[in-house]
Amino acid sequence: MPRMSILASWAATASLMLGAASAQAAGWSASSPATSSCSSTNLFASWTYGSYTVNNDVWSPCSNLAAGEQTIWANTNLDWGVTSDQPNTSGIKSYPHIGYSVNKTISSLSTLTAAVSATTPSGGAWESTFDIWADSNRHEIMVWLNYTGTSTGCGNVKPISYNWTSAGCAIPLHSNVSLSGGTWNVFVGTNGSNIVYSFLRTTKTDDTTIDVLAIMKYLKSLNYFDDVMIGDLQYGFEITSSSGGLGFASKEFAVTAE
């Protein structure tokens, strides 16, 4: 075959391979519009990959708070992300996340860990956080890894808390708690539907492995609950504002539950 024909054939094959790779990279995506209607399209669009489910979770329009445009995408549990354009107003607009159903009691587990490697923006108001549900959603445990507020409960995002300073900062009930390779301030409060326990990592990070079982055992040791059933273990980005469209991504989310 002449050299030019060989090159043309190789180029055509490479183009087909690149096209296939691009098609695979596209994976799944869904976009929700700027809206104040709870019935708008794709607010809760979801996609399942093996034992994991990715959810757009733009829930603020269902709480009478307008949300901006948001597009979520995913290839696997190890590669997903979101671009969100939320207005610079108070109140959480969305929690795009990935979830894994544990459905085991604390005592039945010898290991429950979750690995995270995220990309987060420098601006906006948000937290990169786990949301762990237990005892039929009576207890919500949030584990803030990175966030735009402060670990002492101040700033443009704040944890739910029973106690507040005169300056409007949440007050931790437990400070500088050593768990899972980090130090945490722990806040406790209610959102009106369930009790929320918020662990704010005093040194922020986008890359870590969390010992979820150790956190659950810690709360159990303080008699906040007994040998509860752990339900969904979620990780994502709770977004208050991301004006202009900010990107978030998660590359290594994986759960080990044994």
CATH-assigned homologous superfamily: Glycoside hydrolase family 11/12, catalytic domain
CATH class: Mainly Beta
- In round numbers, the mean pLDDT is 92
What gyration radius follows from the Cα positions, in whole Å? 21 Å
Number of strands: 16
Can you tell me about this structure?
- The protein is mainly beta and 258 residues long.
- It has helices at residues 3-26, 212-221; strands at residues 28-32, 46-49, 52-55, 70-76, 79-84, 97-105, 112-119, 125-134, 139-147, 174-179, 182-190, 195-201, 207-211, 229-241, 246-250, 254-257.
- The strands form 2 sheets. It has a 9-stranded mixed beta sheet, covered by helices on one side.
- The longest helix is centred in the N-terminal third of the chain and has 24 residues, at 3-26.
Any key phrases for this structure?
mainly beta, Jelly Rolls, disordered N terminus
Task: Give a brief description.
This protein has two helices and 16 strands. By secondary structure, the chain is mostly beta strands. The strands form two sheets. Strands 2-3-6-14-8-9-12-11-10 form a nine-stranded mixed β-sheet, covered by helices on one side. Strands 1, 4, 5, 7, 13, 15 and 16 form a seven-stranded antiparallel β-sheet that branches.
Structural topology:
Layout lengths: L2 H24 L1 E5 L13 E4 L2 E4 L14 E7 L2 E6 L12 E9 L6 E8 L5 E10 L4 E9 L26 E6 L2 E9 L4 E7 L5 E5 H10 L7 E13 L4 E5 L3 E4 L1
